[in-house]
Amino acid sequence: MSYDEGPRLVWDSEAEAQLATTLLPVIRSEGLDADTAANLWLLVRADGRVDAIVVQTSSGNSAFDAAAGRAAASLIFAPALRDGRAVPLWILREISLLMR
């Protein structure tokens, strides 16, 4: 699908808190490094919410991958635009505690 502008993560204190409360307990309980990450395909709807998630590259830890999916599902994006209209689009994002 062609588009004029890709989705942009709306980064705020709520997004940061969601990542921390979802990922940090898993990082601690699994003895992982703070920079553990998973690459996920996210389907960002026209309203900016995440509709579907597919793991592209695992972190190597299934508990972290599941937590990364839960965290990603709560993120909000400014949607992709095509001809000035919001459209759904798959994007690839690295999800980690250190994400920005």
Helix content: 25-40%
Strand order of the largest sheet: 3-2-7
| Rg calculated over all Cα atoms | 14 Å
Biggest sheet architecture:
3 strands, antiparallel
Order of helices and strands: EHEEHEEEE
**Estimated structural class:** alpha+beta
Explain the overall architecture.
By secondary structure, the protein is α+β, with helices and mostly antiparallel strands. It is 30% helix and 34% strand. The chain has 2 helices and 7 strands; from the N terminus they run βαββαββββ. It has helices at residues 13-30, 62-73, and strands spanning 8-9, 37-44, 50-57, 77-78, 80-82, 85-87, 89-96. Strands 3-2-7 form a 3-stranded antiparallel beta sheet. Helix 1 (13-30) packs antiparallel against helix 2. The longest helix has 18 residues, at 13-30. The model has no long low-confidence stretch (mean pLDDT 93).
